[in-house]
Amino acid sequence: METGQLSVDLRRRIGRLRHITGFVTTYGQEVDPRLSVFARLWHVKRVVSTADRLSGLTESLDGAKIERLAWLHDLNRWPFAHNSEKGFFDQAANVREYFLSRSPTIGTQDIDDLVGIHLKDPSVISAEGRIVLFADSLTGVIEDPLFTVCGLNVHPRIIPQSVSDMLGFSLLADPWYASCFQLAEEFHRAENPDVEFFQKQFHELFGALLSEFIDVHRIDSLEEGQEDLFAIARTVKETFMRPVIFPLNNEKVCHSSWLRQEVMPWYLAHVPDARQRLLEIDEDGFVELVTQIGGSPFTAREFIPDLGYVRREAPEMAFIGPGESRGRAL
């Protein structure tokens, strides 16, 4: 799905997400090209495609509105996204001001829907907004475990059986195990990882797992059972991703506490119009700015995420380790 229905400025803002954290920080691609696959832009594109898939299950919806909301729903992010925003920035509270000041052609109903999507409250948004909210939630609960296994190199046995049961698939079972192993091996063992191959195969695997979820849960309409599906996404995030994966990803790989406790306070104290700039610059621009200010205590290399953390510091968790070979799936 393309962005042709949107203004040139909005398309530029969508393009900015190529250098904004999705699952992992994107800064440092010249040192580690693998970081490009984690950009928020690709998450948004998967939300768009998921919303398109879901919208086909319900009649009488405005497909153009669904596509528009999906493209717009994550534009107002700071560099490093959740890893820098927590305690400093409320994305939902900012939505109205962000679009009214930058894109006055966006209608008030769309803005109301975008606010509700960020509040994760299906009761206050349109039917089209609910499709996008569910697409965003469903995209996250599929792609986050996949990125954990294939991108962070965590063995899929970390995913509890209860979570696999809720999702309707297990990454410990073929064909999913074999696909994940191939991607993780390319990402973590190849001397020169084929980033384009990983990106293409990851997206195809995501699509196959999305189809599996839809088939297992017998989703032939979103008019009934929507609350149960939201509950699955919410439970997976709250019982597994938030307590188990996010501390590893955000803290050990992406330096979240350092960003919030040291970098952001210093930046906000030393940069004019600091908060407004954070909605315009990307991670490359932020690092260039914050490291070149006179007296800056930061170096550019400190911002690069540590994709080798699991293999080096927690080898017992690693999917691909020294001498690892393709194991038998369950």
Protein architecture, described:
This is HD domain-containing protein. With 330 residues, this protein is an all-alpha fold. The chain has a single domain, classed as Hypothetical protein af1432 (Orthogonal Bundle). Helix content is 58%, strand content 0%. Helix 2 packs across helix 7, helix 5 (91-102) packs antiparallel against helix 6 and helix 7 packs across helix 10 (195-216). It is globular, with a radius of gyration of 20 Å. Mean pLDDT is 93; it is low at 325-330.
Task: Record the SSE blueprint.
Blueprint: H1 8-16, H2 40-55, H3 63-72, H4 82-85, H5 91-102, H6 108-119, H7 127-151, H8 161-167, H9 176-188, H10 195-216, H11 226-253, H12 256-270, H13 274-278, H14 283-292, H15 309-313
How many domains comprise the coordinates? 1
Question: Roughly what is the average pLDDT, rounded to an integer?
Answer: 93
Q: Number of helix segments? A: 15
Supply the CATH class.
Mainly Alpha
Ranges with pLDDT <50 over ≥5 residues? Answer: 325-330
Order of helices and strands: HHHHHHHHHHHHHHH
**CATH-derived topology:** Hypothetical protein af1432
Per CATH, the architecture is Orthogonal Bundle
Mind telling me the C-alpha Rg? 20 Å
Beta-strand content:
under 5%
**What is the structural class?**
mainly alpha
Q: Describe the main β-sheet briefly.
A: none
Shape: globular
Percent helix range: 55-70%
Number of strands: 0
Tell me the distance between the termini.
36 Å
Protein name: HD domain-containing protein
